[in-house]
Amino acid sequence: MAYAPYLPLTKPGPNHVSQVDEAVGDAIRESRIPRSEIFITTKFWPNFAHPSNVPKCLDLVLKNMGLDYVDLYLTHWPVATVAGSNIVNARAGPDATPEDQAIVTDEKTGKDKLDLEHSPRDVAERLGVEGSFLPTWHAMQALVETGKCRAIGVSNFSIAQLDEILSSYSSSSSSSKPTTSSSAGRDSHSPSTTIATNPTIPLSCNQIESHPYLPNTALLKFMSTHSILATAYSPFAGQASTPSPWVTSSSTEHEPPPLLLSHPILDRLSRTLSLDVGQILQSWAVQRGTIPLGKSQDPGRIRMNLDVQRLEDKVVRELDGLEVPGERGRTIDYGGFWGVKFFV
To answer: Tell me, what DSSP letter sits at residue 78?
Structure first.
């Protein structure tokens, strides 16, 4: 069974699936767990960020997985890039070339060609042009109305980028008509175009990196104020003491912190509390109001990660004290991959 490695994702307990491909779809069906009990999240890569391409990515996901809908649809990064003409047949995977993925490369820089017109306002402004994420957001809202996704959100968005979306709600009335995906594609050629935000379809989630080295406290406080759910990826700060190959921003110019899972404080707390280090980090994340996305294919490890415990205040303070100044605690940042700065 090509999908055998994914079966543990649906059997022991946490029925949240964020990796979406044909094998995962097969695993879900093999599990015989009712679809209503499995929460499926998917994201679109920046070359799908043009409003007319947003539904195309979701259609590809649904077709590949053999599903009718996903529960949560997110944009992956706060930037848009130019899509190839083969976008409707784009495919990912370890052997996929940029052409296979419908990615257009800039001949001068060798990087993915940017579409700043449909990038968040602050990202575009830092590069001297106008941009707006709102037309893309309206195209995402339209997909909720089709039933192909139940909720929508973003990933790696800053306070300023979240506010760009939220401010559009304050100017919408309850009688505003939602934008259809087709009209979003036609009307989105100018960032200044006014399209009504559907006030009944909220910004549900922002998926961000968060762990004791990078707690993102100010961002989480802002999100809580605006009822935006925080899902936290890399809750263990990565699996290596060296930066991920995708950490390409200026934040990596400093010596990386030691491996969080082997930190002496966590080792001591693990022995004192009789908890696994992963349990401690998951418990800390949940206690802060986030949903940690710890990954494992081991059923025992999955069950352990779910067994969160209430931590004493002094333990929380110790973990809070592990924050690394600046951006040196970050393990994932694709900004340099596109030549833009996300975390400033």
So the answer is: S
Residue 31 has a pLDDT of 84
**Cα 313 from Cα 47, distance rounded (Å):** 44
By residue count, the chain amounts to 344
pLDDT at residue number 32: 85
SS3 state of residue 270: helix
Pairing of strands 229-233, 203-209: parallel
Give the three-class secondary structure for 153.
Answer: strand
Residue 117 to residues 105, 149, 186: CA-CA distances in angstroms?
Answer: 17, 25, 14
Lowest-confidence region among 25-34, 52-61, 71-80, 123-132: 25-34
3-state helix, strand, coil split of the chain in percent (to 5) is 40, 15, 50
172 band by pLDDT with thresholds 50, 70 and 90? low
Report the predicted TM-score, pTM, of the whole model to 2 decimal places: 0.86
User: Could you give the maximum distance between any two Cα atoms of the chain, in Å?
Assistant: 60
Residues 6+ apart with CB under 8 A from 139: 51, 52, 54, 55, 179, 181, 184, 185, 188
Higher pLDDT, 264 or 5: 264
Do residues 124 and 89 make contact, with C-beta atoms less than 8 angstroms apart? no
Name the residue with higher pLDDT: 92 or 153. 153
Q: How confident is the model at residue 336 (pLDDT cuts 50, 70, 90)?
A: confident
Helix (H, G, I), strand (E, B) or coil at 120: coil
At residue 214, the 3 state secondary structure works out as strand
- Alpha helix locations (H) across the chain? 22-31, 54-65, 121-126, 134-146, 159-170, 181-187, 217-225, 264-273, 277-287, 299-306, 313-320, 335-338
Please state, in angstroms and rounded to a whole number, the distance separating the CA atoms of residues 197 and 165.
Answer: 9
Please give the full DSSP string across 23-38, using - where no structure is assigned. Answer: HHHHHHHHHT--GGG-
